[in-house]
Design goal:
Rossmann fold; five-stranded parallel sheet; 11% strand; globular; disordered N terminus; cobalamin binding; SGNH_hydro_sf; phosphatidylcholine lysophospholipase activity; metal ion binding; Cobalamin-bd
Length: 226
């Protein structure tokens, strides 16, 4: 990532912390789609990058991912449980609520706001560990979405932050998406007019990135909640 893209990424990610915290978690699919036959349930947990801040529900990545899965012959329901402005501590505080959605798989993408606030990466790692442990105790397959901070935040911090996700994935034997925003971060043409959140096209790329990891999780998951 060059300096220009890095600066744009910092600006874009910084705004995640200022997004409306009151935005409720919401299902990605309309009610009538829930009546369709499903093989299982995926719950997408995260901040505004998951919630799809500024877009209609059907343009956020969980809804786009569900469409891609169905096109691939995998009729899995994908629930959008993203809340804008949330840190990993906030995600941890509602992990038991996530379980009430009866997920077979959770795609966990959280921590960007931790990095922007300079929270000790050890705190983020501890929160991720506790969330993963709780989910796995309930036989939920976890896909972990990796996040990165740019060098502007300091080389030591950047390295420590980036190391959190592979460390947690290795410790818990998780499916790891190396960088959730691969191909989208730092590209103004794939972000909304505010230069902050991905457009529908940006989320199409995100969904394409997530798809093979979701399929891998499906292939190793006996449906429990679907």
């Amino acid at each position: 990532m060059n300096l220009r893209k890095g600066l744009i990424t910092v600006i874009a990610l910084t705004a995640l912390a200022g997004c409306d915290r009151r935005e409720a978690a919401r299902p990605a699919a309309p009610a009538q789609q829930e009546a369709r036959a499903t093989a299982g349930t995926i719950v997408a947990v995260g901040d505004s990058l998951t919630a799809g801040y500024g877009l209609d529900e059907h343009d956020a990545y969980p809804a786009q991912l569900e469409r891609l899965l169905r096109e691939a012959g995998r009729p899995w329901r994908v629930v959008n449980a993203g809340i804008s402005g949330e840190t990993s501590s906030g995600a941890l505080s509602r992990v038991n609520w996530v379980l009430t959605l009866k997920p077979d798989i959770v795609i966990l993408v959280t921590g960007a706001n931790d990095g922007l606030r300079g929270i000790d990466p050890k705190v983020t790692e501890k929160n991720l560990d506790e969330m993963v442990r709780t989910l796995k105790e309930r036989n939920v397959t976890v896909v972990l979405g990796g996040m990165k901070m740019v060098a502007n935040l300091g080389r030591d911090y950047t390295r420590a932050f980036a190391a959190v996700y592979p460390a947690v994935a290795k410790r818990h034997d998780l499916i790891l998406i190396p960088f959730f925003l691969e191909g989208v971060a730092g590209r103004p043409d794939l972000n909304q007019a505010d230069g902050i959140h991905p457009t529908a096209e940006g989320y199409r790329i995100v969904s394409d990135t997530v798809l093979p990891y979701a399929i891998k999780a499906i292939d190793q998951t006996p449906p429990l909640g679907g």
